[in-house]
Amino acid sequence: MERRATRGDAQQRNHGGSFLPVFDSRKRKIPGLWQRGSFYYAQLRVDLGNRHIPATIRARCLILPRF
Fold this sequence. Notes:
Layout: H1 7-14, E1 20-23, E2 29-36, E3 39-47, E4 52-58
Antiparallel strand pairs: 1-2, 2-3, 3-4
């Protein structure tokens, strides 16, 4: 028996994951470090001389140490 698609299903498929802040062992937010799914991202500001632009870079490490 096949299930019919509902309006809620379409909303869930179109919704992208959100970035969650990363906390240290003392439950303090680590500035510029975010998690989305199983990946970690660093949020930086790039200086182009006359202006700054934000850049989000995915971390390339597989295991982050726990402190």
